[in-house]
Design brief:
With about 150 residues, the protein is α+β, with helices and mostly antiparallel strands. The protein is built from four helices and seven strands; from the N terminus they run H-E-E-E-E-E-E-E-H-H-H. The protein has two domains: about 110 residues, no CATH class; about 35 residues, no CATH class. Strands 2-3-4 form a three-stranded antiparallel β-sheet, with no helix packed on it. A two-stranded antiparallel sheet has the order 1-5. It has a two-stranded antiparallel ribbon with strand order 6-7. A hairpin with a 5-residue loop joins strand 3 and strand 4. The mean pLDDT is about 90. It comes from Sphingomonas abaci. This is HNH endonuclease.
């Protein structure tokens, strides 16, 4: 995932080299959670199950080989272009210990960051409401309208 400009100063100068070492040297250009290969088109069913062309098997969202029972509709199969990112497990960009970093595909990264994204969405909404309350007129209530009219 791209680094926001306001957060770039939190990362070390050699972040590109650290990220490459985790994604390619340690993880072997595969997601460390599900095993999806970097820079490949992968067929998937939308619920985490994906086709591993290298081994000729379906895999679960955790990378385990599975069998599909009862088949599936070919219309449900979609493809995704996989790109690995180096994720901070504790969401702290200043903690660059190898044990805190993991190579994750887009799906696994979004699942890992889901709680953080929910919190960020709440914080942005809270912040915008607070700014609106400080700098905009308060909403006109029925009681205030009656006071203005004198009744």
């Amino acid at each position: 995932m791209p680094i926001r400009p306001e957060n770039r100063w939190l990362y070390p100068i050699d972040w590109r080299q650290v990220s490459d070492a985790i994604r390619f040297d340690r993880a072997g250009a595969r997601c460390e959670r599900c095993g999806r290969p970097h820079r490949r088109h992968v067929a998937h069913l939308g619920d985490g199950r994906w086709w591993d062309a290298a081994s000729g098997r379906w895999r679960s969202g955790r990378g385990r080989a599975i069998r599909l029972r009862g088949g599936f509709a070919l219309a449900r199969v979609r493809t995704t272009y996989v790109v690995l990112a180096c994720a901070h497990l504790d969401h702290d960009p200043g903690n660059n210990a190898p044990s805190n970093l993991m190579a994750l595909c887009q799906r696994c990264h979004m699942l890992h960051d889901a709680a953080e994204h929910r919190w960020q969405r709440w914080w942005n909404l809270f912040r915008h409401r607070a700014i609106r309350d400080l700098y905009e007129d308060p909403p006109v209530t029925r009681a205030r309208m009656l006071l203005r009219r004198g009744g």
